[in-house]
Amino acid sequence: MPTAPTVVLNARALERTVARMADEVVERADGTENLVLVGIQRRGVQLAERLGRMIAQHEGATVPRGALDITLYRDDLQTVGPRPIVGKTVIPGAIDGRTVCIVDDVLYTGRTIRAALDELADFGRPARIMLAVLVDRGGRELPIHADVVGRSVDVPPGGRVDVLVSELDGRDEVTMVIAGEET
Predict the structure, then answer these.
(1) 3-state secondary structure 97-162
(2) Residues 63 and 37 sit within 8 Å (Cβ to Cβ)
């Protein structure tokens, strides 16, 4: 039986974390001129929008934003079922020669990011691809790392990290749920 969720980031801490991440994305991209933010469906899209708004506030520049739905690029697609629900992929213009920052909520095994890289390759050849994640929970199965991390947390086996965003969930919060031990 799982234990009660532990709050990792409350709404205010999440806002501060995204603001810091926005500055770091711009710094690592050497400015905003060739930067494109692409969020992974679902919550990565909302986080990319927030990063874009923060960058606009801090830099006075509008950064193009898009969305990737990696459903058809998953390596476990056959286990999803005969009719997977496919969301929208929107790439804001040509990405050839640009710096694309993939944005996701939680980095775990790396398989979602591998699928995102495969899909992104269908749209062009960026000069550079960066990865920004709100939470890195460890547990990698592939050699993938994030360039920009909001918060790193150690999650024991059987545990999970839940990211809630007001646009989809009615509130902003990051929690960790750890599976309880059997007695």
Answers:
(1) CCEEEEEEEEECCCHHHHHHHHHHHCCCCCCEEEEEEEEECCCCCCCCCCCEEEEECCCCCCCEEE
(2) yes
Model confidence at 2, pLDDT cuts 50, 70, 90, reads: low
Rounded CA separation 132/38 (Å)? 10
| Residue 90 belongs to domain with CATH number | 3.40.50.2020
Closest CA to 65 of 84, 41, 82: 41
For the entire predicted model, the pTM comes to: 0.92
DSSP 83: S
- Domain interval for residue 92: 11-76+86-155
Domain count, the chain: 1
Asked whether 104 and 135 are in contact (CB, 8 A), the reply is: no
Least confidently predicted of 34-38, 67-71, 84-88, 117-121:
84-88
Looking at the domain assignment, is residue 182 inside a domain?
Answer: no
Biggest CA–CA distance in the chain, Å, is: 57
Residue 171 lies in a domain: no
CA–CA distance, 61 with 13 (Å, rounded to integer):
24
Domain-embedded: residue 35 = yes
Residue 103 lies in a domain: yes
Cα-only R_g, the chain: 16
